[in-house]
Amino acid sequence: MTHAADSADIALAYHARTKHKTERYAAGPETLDWDAQPNPFREFEGCARIALSLDAASISTSFADIYAPDSVRPHALSIASLGVLMELSMGLSAWKEYGPDRWAVRCNPSSGNLHPTEAYVVSRNIPGLENGLYHYLSRDHVLEQRCRSANVAPARAEEHPRLWIGLSSVHWREAWKYGERAFRYCQLDIGHALGALRYAAGTLGWKAKVVENLGCAELATLMGLDRAEEFSGVEHEDCDLLIAIDPHPENDQSCEDGRAPGAWEAAASQWAGHANLLDPRPIYHWPVINQVSLATRGGIASTQADAPNYPPLAEPSKAQAANIILNRRSAQRFDRKLTMSADTFYRMLDCLLVRPIAPWDVWTYSPRLHLIFFIHRVEGLELGLYALPRHPQAAHALQGALRSDFLWQRVDDAPHHLPFVKLMPADCRTVAKLVSCHQAIASDSCFSLGMLSEFEAIVKQDPWRYRQLHWEAGLLGHVLYLEAEAAGLRGTGIGCYFDDLLHDLIGLKTEQFQSLYHFTVGFPLTDERIMTLPAYPGR
Ligand SMILES: Cc1cc2nc3c(=O)[nH]c(=O)nc-3n(C[C@H](O)[C@H](O)[C@H](O)COP(=O)(O)O)c2cc1C
To answer: Do 161 and 126 contact (CB within 8 A), yes or no?
Structure first.
């Protein structure tokens, strides 16, 4: 057997064993000591710290402009605009307080608010910032200087400032609570973080692109994650991806920005810092996470997207983008009496189709995830099961794989280009709640959905894509979060669902497709007892 086949088997087996079933949840801790939660903030002791400014609220870009590539004059890349990028993507947006409990929430959502995703900044020629590698500490909105590098020539007048953001995951933070299924959540969180960075870049008139063909070892070296002595005795961090920020999207040549920076030269680099210990008393151990992590490492090979040419998005929100991003929250309860408008619903769906604009311009992959909707309260739509295949060929494959009595009937009221179809009229509220681990957020909302991924063949061909398919799911979730917020509604990601219950319901018998993430959108009910405090008091 080839190495790739071994790796694919590991990834597929991991996926199968981490399914939640009605009779048993995926293996996880039997008890949780809430007072001994891992520290949600990684920091590096012994690094110089550079405070970033908090200027996001002053960025007037509208939400609509993020989708209109040429409408925002690009901000100059400086330490100040870098501060905005980080604040609106990985930064805190508030502290919450209820009784004796106090917790931070961030612009990027995270399963269980556990935040396994860490962000690193690689800078070159940015005014006000030395060339090198920095860890972003969201708690304080500061950069920790991990590596100071003299191997890149000091700023030459003609060389543009350049910026890359690396993302990694501390699996233990998530595994502490969710056990074996945690690796999936870490990957979904990466997808959200990628989305958060792309929207934040858009507020500054910038683009963001995942760097392709970059090996895991190379990336770990770039992000300093293979420096064993600086992580000795603490939780491991697994590198996921590198994003090139393009601050000159108006300049075609700047697409060389899709490349990785050169490696650090040992002789010309000075490193500092030791990672902190997040959990001094880990009780459980989930070796399968390490196995799937190793099996799904690899380069990020580019593919040619072959998306249809859709018409421009209709009626985007003119509200200030920063305000929407900073106020994004997960709904914890929904109002069961309210119905969302058809216009809002179709606009939200339209944003999920792949166009060469934010956020889908982060990579060249064709969409591989397709949506199965439980429609509960959407104006003009009969209650029932619906589908949005996000790729014309997928519609055909889905029809062959799902129940033969599904209608596949075009919804006439939907915009003509939107491949939105009715599968079956039914009141799905009870089953939607059941499928999502009995969570009422899946039935009290206006709609909930499952993200069906083209699965087995892709993972078999390239095991690394097990991660990337989850990133696509997270990205879809992120669009829904922000679009819901922009429309005065609210969404919530749903990582807890009974995988095969959904598959059985829709008649899926093989692993050709698998559901990777669920989501729900509706009118939120807020818990007035929870206090909201400033993200960075005193600053
Ligand atoms: C991948 C993922 C899975 C999630 N799964 C659930 C879920 O099953 N149930 C739920 O109530 N919230 C879920 N959430 C919402 C998180 O709990 C929420 O993002 C987190 O508490 C932070 O709050 P915020 O989104 O308001 O910043 C999920 C979020 C993500 C990103």
So the answer is: yes
Residue 283 to residues 28, 40, 149, 411: CA-CA distances in angstroms?
11, 17, 39, 52
* One-letter identity of residue 227: R
Q: Ligand 1 mean position to 235 CA, how many Å?
A: 23
**Tens digits of per-residue pLDDT, 67-108?**
998 899 999 999 999 999 999 999 999 999 999 999 999 999
Mean pLDDT of 179-201: 98
Q: What are phi and psi of 510, to 5 degrees?
A: -125, -175
The pick from 18, 110, 519 for probing ligand 1's pocket by mutation, whose C-beta has the most ligand atoms within 8 angstroms, reads 110
Q: State the closest ligand 1 atom to the C-alpha of 108, by its place in the atom list counted from 1.
A: 27
Best probe residue, ligand 1, of 111, 327, 481, 525 (max atoms within 8 Å of C-beta) = 111
Ligand 1 center to 168 CA (angstroms): 19
How far apart CA 107 and CA 193 sit, in angstroms, is: 9
Question: pLDDT at residue 15 above 70?
Answer: yes
| H-run or E-run covering 189 | helix 182-203
**pLDDT tens per residue across span 364-418:** 999 999 999 999 999 999 999 999 999 989 999 999 999 999 999 999 999 999 9
Model pTM?
0.97
Give the atom of ligand 1 at the shortest distance from the alpha carbon of 497: 8
Side-chain-side CA neighbours of residue 181 (13 Å): 23
- Residues within 6 Å of ligand 1 by CB: 105-106, 109-113, 185, 188-189, 192, 329-330, 439, 441, 492-496
Distance (Å, whole) CA 28 – CA 31: 9
Please report the domains of the chain, with CATH numbers, ordered by start residue: 32-295 (3.40.109.10), 330-522 (3.40.109.10)
